[in-house]
Design brief:
The structure is a single chain. By secondary structure, this protein is α/β, with parallel strands linked by helices. Among the domains are: 11-110, OB fold (Dihydrolipoamide Acetyltransferase, E2P) (Beta Barrel); 133-281, Rossmann fold (3-Layer(aba) Sandwich); 392-446. 57% of the residues lie in helices and 18% in strands. It has helices at residues 13-23, 27-30, 70-73, 116-131, 136-145, 163-170, 189-200, 225-231, 250-254, 262-281, 283-421, 426-446; strands spanning 33-40, 46-47, 50-56, 63-69, 81-93, 96-110, 150-157, 177-184, 206-210, 237-241, 257-258. The strands form two sheets. A five-stranded mixed β-barrel has the order 1-3-4-6-5. Strands 8-7-9-10-11 form a five-stranded parallel beta sheet, with helices on both faces. Helix 10 crosses helix 11 (283-421). It is rod-shaped, with a radius of gyration of 66 Å. The model has no long low-confidence stretch (mean pLDDT 82). Keywords: Coiled coil, Exonuclease, Hydrolase, Membrane, Nuclease, Transmembrane, Transmembrane helix. This is Exonuclease VII, large subunit.
Length: 447
């Protein structure tokens, strides 16, 4: 019986995988090919000078892994369209074949056109910026200071297993929160919208969308315009914890607070609660510290503002000083020109005035000399006239006296006749004698 045993080859699993791996030989794996699509960053770390990223088709969310050299990766902009040259490499893991494109050259970067969806997304982001984000830490602080629990509802996927990650991160701080867990088809924007509208009627402080990452294609749900429009109208504080750090979606940008993973979300709440718990126990010291920080910050800001203002004023002063210097130089130059003209005019005027003064002095001297001559002549004329007047007055007096004398002679003659006629009349003789003496005295005085 032993001689009739059938012999057959026996393979190990590794041998079978090796056989199929060696059997899959295509031209694309040997020759260089060109690949075009939307480039998306991977984990963000280089392994052996290579980055492992994704290249998506332009029309859908189908992607292939990319192995990009570090030197070329620095030239890539995330989510831009590129044409790449390289070859396909394959690897077989756990009976599955994984294809990866190894980049040799960046051939071309396509100009990215702005679609209507992108414009709507931009409009929603602008609207959120105008509304402003509600502060998660402020909410938790106010509730804890009032000894009230913070009401939270977390929305998970139907078959999610990441709840434990959230609670592990939250740790002992769970006592400060009243947490409700809900679920829906988290890969369906319609299902999420329905759930948000249902929750909006309830009195929750925080609404969070929570998932642990997953494939990139399902992340497009969180870029949905309709879902985003409902999301930013939610009254409670909105939180997202739906992916890794490189998986930033539109909802992440619109959320009041974004965490990368469920554990980060729980740990973030724990950090806030623990910080506020310590503040309550050390309220006075912490309050003073906070006040100091605020005052220091305000003082620093004021100093910075004043420094900026001083710098601006210095620049303005320098500019004004420069302008003033230029104006002074211009003014001095103009003034010097005017002064020179004025000096020339003054010299001419001085010369003319001197000549006029000399002429006036000469004329005045001549006039003075003439007046002196006239005065001499006038004095002479006055002297002659005075002599004439005196002579005339003397003549008039003489004539008057002569007349008087003649009258007295006649009176004397008459008296003499009377004397002769009456020799005994001695009184008349005496009177006549006295009159003669007076007349003689007067004549002697006049002459």
């Amino acid at each position: 019986m032993e001689g009739n045993e059938v012999s057959y080859p026996v393979y190990s699993p590794a041998s079978v995988i090796g056989i199929f791996s060696n059997a899959l030989k295509l031209n694309a794996m040997v020759n260089l090919i060109y690949l075009k699509g939307r480039y998306s960053y991977g984990a963000g770390k280089a392994y052996g000078n290579y980055y492992y990223d994704q290249l998506f088709s332009e029309g859908d969310n189908v992607s292939i892994g990319i192995r990009m050299p570090s030197l070329l990766r620095s030239q890539i902009i995330n989510n831009e369209i590129y044409t790449l040259r390289g070859f396909i490499e394959k690897s077989i893991k756990n009976s599955s074949i994984e294809l990866r494109f190894v980049v040799d050259e960046i051939v071309k970067q396509e100009e990215k056109s702005i679609s209507e969806d992108e414009l709507e997304r931009y409009g929603l982001i602008q609207k959120k910026l105008e509304q402003g984000s509600k502060n998660l830490e402020t909410l938790v602080r106010n509730k804890m200071l009032k000894d009230e629990k913070i009401r939270i509802i977390n929305i998970y996927g139907n078959n999610a297993i990441v709840q434990k990650d959230f609670y592990e991160g939250l740790d002992v701080s769970v006592k400060y929160f009243d947490i409700s867990d809900d679920s829906c088809n988290i890969t369906s924007s319609t299902a999420i919208i329905s759930k948000l509208k249902e929750i909006s009627a309830l009195d929750y402080d925080i609404v969070a969308l929570v998932r642990g990452g997953g494939d990139r294609q399902s992340m497009e749900t969180f870029n949905d315009i309709s879902l985003s429009e409902v999301f930013i109208t939610m009254a409670p504080i909105t939180v997202t914890a739906i992916g890794h750090s490189v998986d930033e979606t539109l909802l992440d940008k619109l959320a009041d607070k974004r965490f990368h993973l469920p554990h980060d979300y729980g740990a973030g709440l724990h950090s806030i609660a623990e910080k506020l718990s310590h503040e309550k126990s050390n309220s006075r010291a912490l309050l003073i510290d906070e006040v100091k920080k605020d005052v220091t910050k305000q003082f620093s800001e004021q100093v910075e503002t004043l420094e900026k203002q001083l710098k601006k004023k210095n620049e303005e002063f320098t500019e004004a000083q420069k302008t003033y210097k230029e104006q002074i130089e211009t003014h001095n130059k103009t003034f010097a020109d005017h002064l020179k003209v004025r000096n020339e005019e003054f010299q001419k005027l001085q010369k003319s005035s001197t000549e006029q003064l000399e002429g006036m002095q000469k004329s005045f001297q001549e006039q003075q000399k003439q007046r002196q001559q006239e005065m001499e002549n006038y004095k002479k004329e006055m002297a002659v006239l005075y002599e004439k007047n005196v002579q005339s007055s003397i003549n008039e007096r003489t004539a008057s006296l002569n007349t008087t004398v003649e009258t007295l002679r006649q009176e004397n003659a008459r008296l003499n006749q009377e004397v002769h006629s009456s020799k005994n009349d001695y009184v008349k003789i005496i009177i006549a004698f006295l009159l003669a003496l007076v007349i003689g005295f007067m004549l002697a005085k006049i002459l």
